[in-house]
Design a protein that fits this description.
Shape of chain B: globular
Structural class of chain B: alpha/beta
Shape of chain A: flat
Oligomer: heterodimer
Order of helices and strands of chain A: HHEEHHHHHHHHHHH
Strand order of the largest sheet of chain A: 1-2
Helix content of chain A: over 70%
CATH architecture of the largest domain in chain B: 3-Layer(aba) Sandwich
Largest sheet of chain B: 5 strands, mixed
CATH class of the largest domain in chain B: Alpha Beta
Radius of gyration of chain B: 26 Å
Distance between the termini of chain B: 75 Å
CATH topology of the largest domain in chain B: D-Maltodextrin-Binding Protein, domain 2
Helix content of chain B: 40-55%
Largest interface: A-B, 37 and 46 residues
Chain lengths: 306, 479
């Protein structure tokens, strides 16, 4: 009101209207995205939380019964749940290390201005762009102990054929082969991109100072690539923790649950056994594990100042 | 300035429009129900719900009233559209090319969506749970989900449609269905579906290898092992017998072994019998066949792997569904065309009770076009249609289909088909409908049992330990 009283000659209402619009515009423009995000991420999360506190059997005439934390207690006493946790952590730890080491190495290689490298770059990307379902189907056939390619090659080389996906002792290694084959190129791609943004001056200086190739890698390239490596690790952390498609296609968690990851177990409980409450509880545990793993990496990232 | 305001206004308008896209979705629904809902629920239920009463009373007199059946009105639901959810399955492949005939005959339009079997199951269950009317008609495997879906009220109960002469033509002849598969579609004596195909596990074997090594045809269940051993000895590197090891699928080929040793899944008190003395014998025998005479990696095997192995000429015998015949002798992929024979499971010390299962077609209890869907069921399961499909290799649950001159002529010129027909007939006459241990949650009990048998196949546990634990778990589940 005080503003109105001021004797400024120009069209005040319009200006005021404009300034209100200026203030409102960003909010309005953000709103669709914000609402969409809240609905798409928030709703499933809240609903999963609701489901996890109830006993809900899909296809049963019984209504949902509130059972508090019983689903989580059930998980704690469920040996297959703990197998799934172990499978998840094992695939995550071994898979991430292998993919990072190989991916960084290949990425640095692909970043070199060598002749014919453009073709190698294109070829290297292939595994990452093939849908996981197709990869799983093809590998499942190649792993078949009786009719598959791998044992055919082993036999041709005079080696003992392996059971691959069909034995509890070799199934995780076989799944890791697929994961590493498919996702190492993804990391290589990120590293290759980072390589191309590195400044050339430090390399020139290092060479003048007489640094060896290994020293350059150890003290120049790798430290400068660290931000890219951490980003790649974080992306793969989320994907490896929620690993589903390759396992579901190739083994469905078998033999005898020895390749059951948390995501596959939750799917089995939900869609095969119709236990949606228990399934949601398992998913929330998986979510917590993923958040912890990402947060640990994030903390490491901040600490190292990258 | 003015320009800026205009631009901001336009952007805002666009954003609001974009933001609102989730809400306009009601638009398609309002569009969709408009044509369908209008003729269907308003016109259709009004008539039939009224109609059954007088007609039911008049029903006994029906056979004498000759002119009435002749006037059966196939066009009564003309203009409606039915949505069918079907699996990728031999029945679907055989009948789908004939759908235009139905559309022409009835004026009902068919919208067909086919899915892989597991995806269909997920999609249908979610829709049924949501009481959705997004589909009207689907193919359901009663031995697996029947009891559960029936208790949940997902199936439209079909008895009243069957007894309504306005909806079922007199030539439908429901008595023609074999008792086993037709009974398999009933729960508490209420009809939830109409059977369309029967199948059962049978034994496919390599006639040429059996003849060359002078292996005699297994006459008792124990002879399967002898035959496998002899065949493997004569053909080094070959697999003796391929069968299911995939824990989710194993029940189908394992069940007949259990009953051959004289045990049912549950005894009269409902207790699981896997760890009973004869149950253990059956498990040990099955595990021995799988681990010593089966393919490496047998614990991942289901029909696809077994048929690929056998069709590729790498196994002496395959224990699989009778439906696999067409895959096994598919000239495009098979190396064993002309070398295959089929036999039923031989009897064991405890009897001869194989497994029979039927697929049935059912109507969504929440469909808004149930009468039209029923008309489709009648068309698809009529005597004429099933006889036609039977000739295409869809083993019919109707007895008359096995008796037509065309079918007999087909068998006369084809010894393999004649053997197959005899095996399927054996299954349909003697088979039990218990694929897995009776339970509301079929997939759960089958997985428990499958994992336990796999532990024995892999030598991780003794049969006694594994089955005792499995029985305890199965007994916890309602049935």
């Amino acid at each position: 009101m005080g503003v109105q009283a001021k004797p400024i000659p120009r069209s005040k209402p319009r200006e005021r209207w404009l300034s209100t619009t200026d203030r409102l515009a960003p909010v309005l423009m953000m709103a669709p995205a914000a609402i969409f995000t809240v609905l798409m991420i928030g709703f499933p999360f809240v609903y999963a939380g609701y489901l996890s506190l109830h006993k809900i059997t899909l296809g049963s005439p019984d209504p949902a019964v509130f059972i508090g934390l019983d689903n989580f207690a059930k998980a704690m006493g469920d040996p297959i749940f703990w197998t799934a946790v172990r499978v998840n952590l094992a695939l995550y730890a071994v898979g991430l290390i292998l993919e990072l080491v190989l991916g960084t190495y290949i990425g640095i290689l692909l970043g070199q201005p060598l002749r014919g490298i453009a073709i190698a770059r294109v070829l290297a990307i292939f595994p990452a762009v093939i849908p996981s379902v197709a990869v799983g189907l093809v590998f499942a056939q190649m792993f078949d102990p009786a009719q598959g390619l791998f044992n055919f090659v082993l036999r041709a080389l005079g080696q003992r054929p392996q059971a691959w996906l069909a034995s509890p002792t070799t199934v995780l290694q076989s799944i890791l082969i697929v994961e590493v084959w498919q996702w190492t190129p993804f990391i290589a791609l990120i590293i290759m991109g980072a390589m191309q943004t590195l400044p050339t001056e430090p390399y020139e200086a290092a060479r003048i100072d007489g640094a060896s190739g290994l020293q350059i890698l150890r003290y120049l390239t790798l430290p400068m690539l660290r931000p890219a490596i951490v980003v790649a690790a974080m992306l793969r952390t989320v994907d490896l923790m929620r690993i589903f498609d390759s396992i579901y296609i190739m083994t469905q968690g078998g033999p005898i649950n020895s390749s059951m990851s948390l995501n596959v177990y939750a799917f089995t409980q939900g869609f095969l056994f119709s236990q949606f409450g228990y399934s949601s509880a398992i998913m929330l545990v998986l979510l917590a594990l993923t958040v912890i793993a990402s947060a640990t990496l994030g903390a490491a990232r901040r600490r190292s100042g990258v | 300035m003015k320009n800026l305001i205009v631009i901001v206004a336009v952007i805002l308008a666009l954003l609001i429009a974009a933001c609102a896209t989730p809400t306009p979705t009601p638009v398609p629904p309002t569009k969709a129900p408009a044509p369908t809902q209008a003729p269907a629920p308003t016109a259709a239920p009004a008539q039939p719900t009224k109609a059954p009463e007088p007609t039911k009373a008049a029903e006994p007199a029906k056979p004498t009233e000759a002119p009435k059946p002749a006037a059966f009105d196939w066009k009564q639901f003309s203009g409606q559209t039915l949505t069918l959810y079907l699996p990728q399955h031999p029945w679907t492949n055989a009948i789908q090319p004939l759908f235009p005939d139905f559309e022409k005959q009835t004026g009902i339009k068919l919208e067909v969506q086919t899915f892989a079997e597991a995806q269909l199951r997920d999609k249908v269950l979610i829709a049924l749970q949501a009481k959705s009317s997004e589909f009207d008609f689907w193919m359901s495997l009663k031995s697996r989900e029947g009891l559960k879906y029936y208790r949940a009220g997902y199936y439209e109960i079909l008895d009243k449609y069957l007894s309504d002469p306005k909806l079922t033509p007199p030539e439908y002849n429901v008595k023609d269905f074999a008792a086993g598969p037709f009974g398999g579609e009933k729960f508490d004596n209420k009809l939830t579906g109409i059977p369309i195909i029967i199948e059962g596990p049978v034994i496919f074997y390599r006639k040429d290898l059996f003849d060359a090594a002078k292996i005699s045809f297994p006459k008792k269940i124990e002879d399967i092992e002898t035959a496998a051993a002899a065949c493997m000895k004569a053909n080094p590197g070959i697999t003796g017998v391929t069968l299911r090891g995939d824990p989710n699928a194993i029940a189908y080929t394992f069940g007949p072994f259990l009953r051959a040793f004289g045990v049912n899944y549950r005894d009269a008190n409902g207790k699981s019998q896997l760890s009973s003395p004869n149950g253990l014998k059956a498990v040990e025998y099955y595990a021995k066949l799988a681990s010593q005479y089966g393919p490496p990696g047998v614990v991942t095997y289901s029909f696809a792997q077994s048929s690929a192995l056998f069709g590729g000429g790498n196994a002496c015998m395959e224990i699989e569904s009778s439906n696999e015949l067409s895959t096994i002798v598919d000239p495009k992929s098979s190396k064993v065309v002309g070398k295959v024979g089929v036999m039923p499971y031989p009897p064991g010390p405890g009897g001869d009770v194989p497994t029979v299962l039927q697929w049935g077609v059912s109507i969504n209890a929440n469909s808004k076009k149930k009468e039209a869907a029923w008309l489709f069921a009648v068309w698809a399961t009529s005597q004429e249609m099933q006889a036609k499909l039977h000739l295409k290799g869809i083993a019919s649950p109707r007895l008359s289909a096995w008796d037509t001159p065309e079918w007999k002529a087909q068998l006369a010129g084809d010894p393999l088909r004649a053997e197959w027909a005899a095996a399927v007939k054996h299954v349909s006459e003697k088979g039990s409908g218990e694929v897995g241990p009776p339970a509301i949650e079929q997939p759960t009990v089958r997985k428990i049992m499958g994992d336990a048998i796999d532990a024995v196949i892999l030598g991780q546990k003794s049969a006694a330990d594994a089955m005792k634990a499995a029985d305890a778990e199965i007994d916890k589940l309602a049935h």
